[in-house]
Amino acid sequence: MTDKTLESLNEKLERLIETVARLTPPPTPAPDFDAADCFVWQAEGPRLQPVERVNRVDLALIKGVDRVRDILLDNTRRFASGLPANNALLWGARGMGKSSLVKAVHAEVNCARPDDAPALKLIEIHREDIEGLPKLMALVKAAPYRFILFCDDLSFDQDDTSYKSLKAALEGGVEGRPANVILYATSNRRHLLPRDMIENERSTAINPSEAVEEKVSLSDRFGLWLGFHKCSQDEYLSMIQSYASYHDLPVDAETLRTEALEWATTRGSRSGRVAWQFIQELAGRFGKQLKE
Predict the structure, then answer these.
(1) Strand locations in 171-232, DSSP E?
(2) Could you write out the three-class secondary structure of 252-273?
(3) Nearest to 100 by CA among 69, 76, 67, 139
(4) 139-177: b (≥16 Cβ within 10 Å) or e
(5) pLDDT tens across 128-166, in order?
(6) DSSP run (H or E) holding 105
(7) What angle do the packed helices 98-112 and 66-80 form, to 10 degrees?
(8) In which order are the strands placed within the sheet that holds 224-228?
(9) Inter-residue contact 226 to 72 (CB < 8 Å)
């Protein structure tokens, strides 16, 4: 082979290397965890988007769920302190403050932490990005912080196999869940799967008990099951009164009670969400801004 031929081959090889390098995606930049205490996982990047202003309410304003509030707060405090803690599944009635409680507990624990203790970080991962959970865990496991990975309204439908990724990320696999990571999820379903999906597995599988066990075992990966149930009229009115007092709304107790009950009747339900919507209506009527 002549020198000229060899030089030509080297040039072609260099061009090929350059072309391959351009096609290779750039490495994921290391996230700046000091940028915020809350982030949203963007799977397309992938990257962590800092959240400067978190949509949440004060823990003291969350009424009607005292027992589960205390359990989740204690679990989160232990986790932030480096003690053993459980993944938590908050399930049950719509609008009863499941996601609000997670965000409020996170803020409460950070406010009460010692000055020399690192902040507890909250990362929201969307339901459709759940298959990227292992990649997210790999990104945060070496960071000098502890992380709550939070998935709101988590559930799985027929033919959806991404629940297997969640199972492996929670407890399975060789490496297991990083010690500085815990997962909190909310759902309207106790087992994260619709009842008809479970019954279908039971009726069509060769071994019905094993097929059902495979899907129901997902919720077993959560050590805490915290149930949220529809609130009573007294609990609903307590929520209304707390909101009205906190936001200094100029309304007398009897008018507040009467209008709050009428609002719930028109909505056909009583919940924390309905109570908050009523307070927004009331504040708007009085031309008063709500506190942040």
Answers:
(1) 181-187, 224-228
(2) CHHHHHHHHHHHHHHHCCCCHH
(3) 69
(4) bbeebeebbbbbbbebbbeeeeeebeebbbbbeeeeeeb
(5) 888 888 888 889 988 999 999 999 988 776 666 666 667
(6) helix 98-112
(7) 40
(8) 47-50, 38-42, 120-124, 146-151, 181-187, 88-92, 224-228
(9) yes
